[in-house]
Amino acid sequence: MASSSLGDILSNLLVPDNKIIQQATSELRQVFQNPAIIPELCGVISSHQNEQIRQYATVILRRKITKKRQWLKMSADVTCSMKQMLLQSLFQEQNKTVQKGIAQVMGVIAKHELPQNNWPDLLKVLNDLTSSKAAHEREIGMCVLSIVASAAAKALQPHLGSLLTLFEITLHDSESKLVQFYTVQAMTSLVDYAGSDNVKHYQRLVPQVLDFIRGLSANDEDSACEAMELFDELLQSDVSILVPHLTYVVQFCLELASNNLLGDSIRVKAMSFISSLTRLKRKAIVKQKLVLPILEILFPILCSPTDSDEEDEFEEQSNNPNYYAAQVKLYFLHVRKR
Fold it and tell me: What average pLDDT score do residues 261-278 get?
């Protein structure tokens, strides 16, 4: 198989002609079964001029190696050259979408290799990138680290203490919001493996994360919602991390929920968290005298008009702040009757 032929097949998948796309799909199915497609895909990723084709190649390569048995069938020479190519391409790639595609392939390989410590070069590169003086290199490093944490969190558990120390630094990155965002994503993926040894370290980071999300919500609500997944994960995995900061977390969520200038998504996210928290930590909320502050915010939200038509009300209620405000209010009324 020639590299140009694979490039042509991938190119034909992007043309606006159904017949050409069908033919290219058929050809891709055939070459997909050929082990030689692995080095050819690597060649496309590292050298093809069309960024869409490079991106497509990262998707196909990731699919090809997702299962560990597929990875183990490859020779050591092929896997070694692939890892080297990915690290090199990560630095030379200028397109952020392709760069993220490369990082996702690296995440799959990390899942296969890190448990046996078979890719020490990756950890070294990540350490160099995340501590770089150049903001764009720190962004690349934290992006890859967040993806590796998502794909291979358990393999990173032995390094969690040093990673949390790194996160204390990256959460304060004054040059890049992306570095901070990827840090929160990595923290979210690693929560399940915090263990008792790292609880206090996680606790120290909570106020920094809240401050970051507060600033992010003013300009990028979608990313702020995504960053708040950390607190949902903490509720499910280790709510004890939140307990020392319960008042601060509740006040922060109430601040978001009551802000009519924000979109419904982030306000719903905040109310959803409070709704879950009241069910899991009712005694703590009562003890820290948070019931009244919560209700003072809930009632104006409940009284505010909604934009939903009657026919859409059932479908859209779960995406409306009023719905979650009502859920929390009903829960507190139930608690008072008990």
Answer: 89
Length of the chain: 338
What is the predicted pLDDT for the residue at 325? 61
Q: Answer whether 269's CB lies under 8 Å from 255's CB.
A: no
Give the pair of three-digit tokens for residue 335.
């608690």
Q: Counting Cβ atoms within 10 Å, is residue 133 exposed (0-12), middle (13-18) or buried (19+)?
A: exposed
Q: Do residues 68 and 113 touch, judged by C-beta distance below 8 A? A: no
Query: What's the rounded Cα separation, in Å, for the pair 298 and 321?
Result: 9
CA–CA dist 258, 262 (Å, integer): 9
In the chain, the amino acid numbered 224 is: A
Reduced to 3 states, what is the DSSP secondary structure of residue 50? coil
What mean pLDDT value characterizes the chain?
88
Task: Please indicate, yes or no, whether the overall pTM of this predicted structure exceeds 0.90.
Answer: no
Among 10-24, 38-52, 272-286, 319-333, which is the least confidently predicted range? 319-333
Confidence class for position 304, pLDDT limits 50, 70, 90: low
Token code pair at residue 143: 């992006």
The answer to whether 166 and 174 have CB atoms below 8 angstroms apart is no
**What is the torsion angle, in degrees rounded to the nearest 10, for the CA atoms of residue 329, residue 334, residue 335 and residue 338?**
170
Residue 264 burial class via C-beta count within 10 angstroms: exposed 0-12, middle 13-18, buried 19 and up: middle
Compute the distance between CA of residue 246 and CA of residue 253 in angstroms, rounded to an integer: 11
Q: Residue 191 gets which letter from DSSP?
A: G
Q: What percentage of the chain has pLDDT greater than the value 70? A: 88
CA distance 236 to 50: 43
Say how far apart CA 101 and CA 122 lie, in whole Å.
Answer: 16
Contacts of 338 (CB under 8 A, 6+ apart): none
> What whole-number distance in Å separates Cα of residue 151 and Cα of residue 243?
28
Structure tokens, 131: 């501590």
Residue 337: predicted pLDDT: 47
In angstroms, what CA-CA distances link 81 with 36, 53, 164, 181, 238? Answer: 13, 21, 31, 31, 40
What 3-state DSSP class applies to 64?
helix
Mean pLDDT within 272-296: 84
Q: Are 250 and 285 a contacting pair, CB within 8 Å?
A: yes
